[in-house]
Write a sequence for this structure.
């Protein structure tokens, strides 16, 4: 009888733990994409700032975009069919997201957003 009670208790615990583990894994992938977007924004801000304080100053969003190294790690991949200058799609560990990029201006750097 004790053995059956122990098996029932283990089954109940497993019924609650497995779905939570699956949700936790998906949540970690979503947080990784959020971190990737934050990294893109940091790269944009640093490059925009470098151009602003350089001798030539800000000239165009395209010039800033072309001088940024967008390699944020081998776990992230871009869909090359989409234009990165205005956004595109990014994937991390099988999760695919659409990103949008608001262009930089002389008074503010470009901003990357994860589309809903």
């Amino acid at each position: 009888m004790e053995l059956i009670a122990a098996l029932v208790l283990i089954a109940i615990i497993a019924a609650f733990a497995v779905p939570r583990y699956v949700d936790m894994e998906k949540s970690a992938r979503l947080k990784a994409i959020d971190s990737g977007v934050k990294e893109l924004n940091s790269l944009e801000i640093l490059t925009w700032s470098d151009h602003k304080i350089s001798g030539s100053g800000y000239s165009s969003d395209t010039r800033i975009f072309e001088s940024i190294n967008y390699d944020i790690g081998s776990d992230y991949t871009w869909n090359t069919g989409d234009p990165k200058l205005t956004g595109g799609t990014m994937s991390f560990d099988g999760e695919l997201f659409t990103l949008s990029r608001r262009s930089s201006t002389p008074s503010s750097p470009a901003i990357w957003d994860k589309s809903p």
